[in-house]
Amino acid sequence: MLSLKGEQIYLRALEPADLDFLYALENNPEIWEISGTTAPYSKHVLELYLENAHKDIYEVKQLRLCICNLKGVILGLIDLFDFDPKNLRVGMGIIVSSKVDRNKGVGAEAIEILTNYAFLVLGMRQVYVNVLEENAPSIHLFSKLGFEKVGIKKDWIYFNGAFKNEILFQKINS
After folding, report:
1. Of 3, 27, 44, 152, which is most buried with the most CB atoms under 10 A?
2. Top-level CATH class of 9-129?
3. Looking at the whole model, is its pTM more than 0.85?
4. Which is it for strands 148-159 and 162-172: parallel, antiparallel or unpaired?
5. What angle is formed at CA 105 by the lines to CA 62 and CA 24, rounded to 5 degrees?
6. pLDDT over threshold 70, residue 125
7. Domain boundaries in the chain?
8. What digits encode the pLDDT tens for the residues 17-61?
9. Is Transferase given among the entry's keywords (predicted)?
10. Three-state DSSP state, 135
């Protein structure tokens, strides 16, 4: 049986008690560029989101999980989106919220766990990620984990008055 637990982290479903963490993360302008957020979220809107977070990936085409250390502290979020069971592909996104927790293997372990879940449980043929061209740490991370750079989306993200390129990576389930 596949476990969503690794050496230093585990992945779990969102809970109503995660509201304050989600509120702080979603309203952090430093990540709006990668999340596509354009305005703050109210706690009410996030409460409604959490009330529906239990829905099946086949119904809502996405799955969002908390990345927790072994003591249960939330370190970030990882999600599958654009779930496409016909073409057997899904997108993945990740954020380790505190800079203190980055570059310690947390993200790599979460990505490996969720990629294995996508391949072994959901039967996906491929997982893809989108990374800003200037995000060298993420480019290094996904390359190290076997994701292959397959293209550049020119002027894909418009943020703070400038266009930025986004790199498309994919990992094929062989």
Report:
1. 27
2. alpha beta
3. yes
4. antiparallel
5. 55
6. yes
7. 9-129
8. 988 888 888 888 777 767 777 777 888 888 888 877 878 898 889
9. yes
10. coil
